[in-house]
Design goal:
Blueprint: H1 2-7, H2 21-34, H3 42-62, H4 66-75, H5 82-96
Helix pairs in contact: 2-3, 3-4
Length: 97
């Protein structure tokens, strides 16, 4: 049912989903990663990093909250995300071929 609902979303310049799942995802991982009792595997950290990156990309482009949009845009300027940006560019190029 949720997949059918997502298929109807028209992605424009602003997010069509409220509450914003990207904002919620960023807050969830911020809180979870601050918990020093949790030991994350390397694979889990890679998945978390990808989830955060995807949320930052979406929030930077579409978030209706200007504070969150500015935060995401600022975070994406960090050199840490260069690897993900390069990988995303490769994926986009492959889809366009």
């Amino acid at each position: 049912m949720a997949v059918k609902q997502l298929g109807k979303i028209e992605w424009g310049k602003r997010c069509a989903l409220l509450p914003c799942p990207c904002k919620e995802n960023l807050a969830r991982w911020q809180q979870a990663l601050e918990d020093e009792e949790i030991v994350w595997s390397l694979e889990e950290l890679k998945d978390i990093e990808l989830s955060i990156f995807a949320s930052l990309l979406c929030a930077a482009e579409r978030c209706t909250d200007p504070t969150i949009r500015a935060y995401a845009q600022d975070q994406l300027t960090n050199k840490h995300w260069n690897k993900q940006k390069e990988e995303e560019a490769v994926r986009i190029r492959r889809r366009m071929q």
